[in-house]
Amino acid sequence: MENEIIALNAELSATTPDWVELIPPGMNVEGRDGRAWINDQPDGIVEQFKQDARQIPIDYEHATEIKAPNGEPAPAVAWIDEIEVRDQGAIWGKVNWNDDGRDAVQNRAYKYLSPVFTFAKNSGRVLRLLSAGLTNQPNLHLTALNRRDDLALTTKEDILMDEKITTALDLAGDSSIDDVVTAINSIKAAQDEKVESAANTEFTPDIEKFIPRSDFDAATERATNAEKELNEIKETARNAEIQSEIDAALESGKITPASVDYHVAACQMDGGLERFKAFAQSAPEIAGDSGIEGTAENTESALTDEETAVCSMLGLAESEFKLCK
After folding, report:
1. Are residues 241 and 101 in the same domain?
2. End-to-end CA distance of the chain
3. Do 8 and 73 reside in the same domain of the chain?
4. CA spacing 20 to 30 A to 324: which of 29, 161, 241, 248?
5. Model-level pTM?
């Protein structure tokens, strides 16, 4: 678990240096109140700065930590663009001053630079730089940030995780949010590895029982095309059969040329061809030579009962039937 705290106050010269010391090295980084921290892993602080991928602000009297959370102005007077390890483990920062910051230092309006950092509560190890402030108050006299432990500024990293969560993850009771996130990510990584391993072993499909999707799609398309071609062949054969039956009925005089389209359409309906075949077998000859010779008046005589029945069966008017005689 981590606390934010102002640790040190470094005195600035009347010039604005390009580089400033932010945290001294070693196992005893002591403040003026006697509290101490350790800076035994400076490379970790530098790596954290790189991961955060942001510049560290330098402001007046730690306004970034005091005023900004309340929505008040907290202008920066400089920005720390880069940090590095020097002098057996000290953390130094490269500063990019603006006009306000440069004037404040050169005119001796402020003499000290005080960093804000987080540290591990159980070990006191410095973890991350957050900001720095120009100040004239010595260490731990900054009313908002430099307090005794029982009055220390609370941040989101001070919140204890729920005991049920830490127990489930097999973590200590004072574990931080970062500790919980790390544990969860480890579990997820292990689960992903297990799933990937399983996918390459017991869940690898048997080639005798399964086929790749691309092969399945190709086979499906081939079957669909084959079915389409077969239907086209069947349709062509049926049309040929219909035409053959129509031609035979015409030749035998069972139907007239004028009714061919009607019979073709009827044959293409479900069961139509079978019905036409039955009709053609039993229908009388209506379009052949009648053998009756005579005058035109004879040809215009009324239809016989049989002829009338044929007209009714074929849906022909008597005048159409007479034209076909």
Report:
1. no
2. 112
3. yes
4. 241
5. 0.42
